[in-house]
Amino acid sequence: MKTTRIFLLLAVVAGVFIIAIGIGSVYVPPGDILSVIAYRIFGAGDTPDRNTMAIVWSLRLPRALLAFIVGAALAVSGAIMQSVLRNPLASSYTLGVSSGASLGAAFVLFAGIPFFANVALPFSGFIFGMLTIVLVILMAAKMDGRMDNNTIILVGMVLSLFVNSITTLLMALHRESAQQLIFWQMGSFSMHSRRDWSTVALLAVVAFIGVMLALRYHREMDIMTFGEEQAQLMGINLRQVKWILLIIAAAITGSAIAFVGIIGFVDLVAPHVVRRIFGSRHRLIIPLSAIFGGAFMMLCDLVARTIISPNELPVGVVSALVGAPFFGYVYFSKGRGTKSAKA
To answer: Global pTM?
Structure first.
């Protein structure tokens, strides 16, 4: 039964992938898409039409792959965070990764550093995002040697608010450049430099390494979902495991948002849906969250670039329109479950 569901998910993802490449200002039939891919990768078949090959290979295919990789990375990060912190609403954004990345982007944009779209902006966003999460963990460890989950979340929220206030101050002082930062914060795959093949390859490597590292700790995450006392009785070094998993999650998130901006709610939606369908074992949750999150992000990007064509919405807006109601559903259903348990 579970195997059948996995094959159905893979079939849906393949369908979404073809649709994401085919639909646009110029419709490309599935057969033409497959022929271009076969010709460019395997050298098979006749030479496709030049315009079709340019649309598929140079524009839509790398964009679809980038959307899939970013969605997969964010979904895996959310699955890790929810497991480590035992909180269904936890994410890397909760601990300040997005706030730190925004501050790094603000420094680059407002300083007028050249070539920011290619090098400085993603590098700065990643570094500041990672520094923020490291600072959160260090502060939480200083305040509470056991690194209690509530302490980590509280420190993350407070530090995130503080970093956001610095970013807001910089925006007030540099209003002429604030529009660029606001657009970056909403997330987008529209800029060509963000969806070329070099970016796809780089993020694919980072995401794959992150998923593999997370899978090494699938047993620990399974045990941690039953509580910290149970995990300690099973011989897990909670402090060390939390450090490692939180850094992995932050690195995956930071790498993704560094190139495309802040895209929220994917890390919240995907792990919950996967748990509901496939169960709670992280050996399945991690890879299937990546697959589901990638498909969800491709759909969001498809809607973002077609719903008001020829203009384009930030993809973060589309994901938020789906994710925000889901966030409310998770929060209030959790509250009802707590009240019922008490009764």
So the answer is: 0.88
